[in-house]
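Example 3.
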Amino acid sequence: MATVTDAPKASFRLSMLIYDTRYRSITIQIVVLLLFMAGAAWLVDNTVRNLAALGKDFSFGFLWNRAGYDINQMLVQYTNDSTHGRAMLIGLLNTLLVAFMSCVAATVLGVIIGVLRLSPNWIVGRLTTVYVEMFRNIPVLLWILVAYAIFTEVLPAPNAFRGENPTASMILFDSVALTNRYTAIPDPLFYRSLGNIDVGLFLISLDLLAIIAVITGSVLVNRKLLAHATAVQNATGVRPVTWWKSILVLLVPLALLLIALGFHAERPVLRGFNFTGGLDVSNSLMALWLGLTLYTAAFIAEIVRAGIGAVSRGQTEAAFALGLRPNRTMSLVILPQALRVIVPPLISQYLNITKNSSLAIAVGYMDLRGTLGGITLNQTGRELECVLLMMLIYLAISLMISGAMNVYNNSVKLKER
Amino acid sequence: MSDTHSETVAYVRETMLPQATPPASEVGAIKWLRENLFSGVLNTILTLVGIAAVVWLVQAALPWFLHGVWNANSLPECRQIIAETWGEGAHGACWAVIRERWNQFLFGFYPSDLYWRPVLALALFFAAVAPVLFTELPRKLLWGSAFYPAVAYILLWGGSLWVPISVMAGFGVGWLGLVAARRTNLPLLGPLAAVLLPLIWWLFLAGPVAGMLEDIIPLGVEEVRSDKFGGFVLSLTIGIAAIVLSLPLGIVLALGRRSDMLLVKALSVGFIEFIRGVPLITLLFTASLLLNYFLPPGTNFDIILRVIIMVTLFAAAYIAEVIRGGLAALPRGQYEAADSLGLDYWKAMQLIVLPQALKISIPGIVSTFIGLFKDTTLVIFVGLLDPLKGITDAVRAAIEWKGVYWEPFIFVGAIFFVFNFGMSRYSMYLENKLKRDHR
């Protein structure tokens, strides 16, 4: 009779740490941890010694010192008497502004080009292919520089708009002037402004708050309206007509508010050698915006094309077989499935835009790198603090965007049963 | 049957008619035009808009290209020639700037009598890469590839031959250590010796040994300092070095991120997410401003080398994410099959998982490479002369070429386009060639 005996209990040998799978992963992890800690300690030790040798300390106190330099574009108030910390905030807001503008414009342009690339039309197909290949394969820095060169070299000077027979003229019904120093656009103003409230860090326009509140209220009411219509449809089978109610609810309160506030757009007018009234948008912002938009739109076009191509033909045919019309097929069947493929890479393109906006350095736009990583760094000589803080801020923006992406991904994930 | 028919049908054709030509609208160019350009109202509008766009572009750009001047010594001279030939007010390109300064765009301020060295280094690079890419070539050629880095260093930077030889000797030292440790039959000693001995060699011995050998037998070629580098020599040096170095690092990071070991995974994730979360410019600033803080006092090494290190780390994080996608796309059965065959982790990865995962990741890896090559233009912001802004600004700084914008941009952009477009087409070809399923 065969007996099963336990394997002889081997006493623990040192070599088991690496040859026995029960212990190996722990051994490796401990070694990795030790190496990592040694490396980190080495870096920190070097840094401390280097700082001591240079007679510097590591502190962020300089953020509360007077900055002493001017910034040409600021979304919230700032003077050269403000602190370095405030200059950093201005830079951050400028970064976010150009990133947001580029994201919106690149998405619009990219979706149009991506859809056109799928068109059976031969000329349009070729043209969009040329666009995509051209912009994808050439560095974005070149596109930003080209846009900047167009704005500064090709466009007329403000004084070209003067005189009886000006050599240049304003576009869009005399409301926008493209010059080689800035782009003058109409400035939205209120005759009966509600004023601003100070929230410590910056002023918030009460007009803006009121507009946002009214729009939010309208959207909520409209949603309720639509929910009611759906409930009626479910109960009776007939959907009440809502489109004119929706338009009324969405537009009338906003229009009333704008009239009450005395909203008007002040056009730029040529006085002397310059445009006054209106907003002067610096050419560096315009060039950065244009360059980032054109470049990223090429990538977004490819993403959109791939996303629509990823929905199998059977889905369209099934929808047609169910009797859905082409419009409804697109909105109910194809788009929801295509969006699941499109949105994650789209958001990573938004991330890329945010990071590429640091190329502002090439055109002198005062973004986060221009203020904190540029003038502040040079004035205070605190490379370590400035660069680390800058990295941390970019990292925080990136993590927030990718966090939002993960939430979206989880909500549209295929629920497999 | 024929009887009944003969009464109702008056005439029956008995011979075949010769085949008629199809209607004009169904053949040739007209059919193609109808189907591809004018198949509906929307399509017709699109076609017309497209044609208008092409006409407008050609009208705007073609005269400028055609009026181009190739022989001139300065921009004003160019403009004068154009005005004389094509009349006052005519626009034209001044290609003379490219003709006169092309060597600067390609080589930066590299000494002109040594131009053959970067060119040879690039040619040898293709020779060294060939046995890695094409498995049909004899395997012995891989030894040549292994020595390529030292050869490239000597060709690009020059200086004493003993420095790269001494650095390469570190690998030999490691191998000797491994062989010696195997003899002793002690476990653990082999890998330990293979890692520690080269480190000791590089940190403490390589420099003095090279210096000593140089004193005994001076062997060297003319040295070219890093500040002479510029243009596409710089871009390609940084780009190729970072591409080659980032691929293995990226694979290690991807495996680390998918590892079961918590600590390894956490470190990999932290590294990848950090690098991917910050712009390359901040990393380049780290290379130029902060590395002096992080390294032992008194260390000062070459700015190009620092930039290569940072760009490598940057690209490795992106490649790691691409390869992670490939690893995740591989069916679970492949991992389980490898396990059931009794392969250990490294064998399973090397023989089963990685070949398939890398194949899936090829398009992503190549597009990372393309992005990396495009990003080499950012080195201008740490003071290196990239072809796009650095050299262009240097050319414009000369009084005779002041104000020349479009020609350098077109020239540099075209070269980038050729490189990157070529790479992306090659990856598409490779993807098709390696496709094994759905045949």
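Strands of chain A lie at 177-178, 182-185, 187-190, 196-198, 203-205, 263-266, 269-271, 274-276, 279-282. The CA atoms of residues 39 and 45 of chain A lie 10 Å apart.
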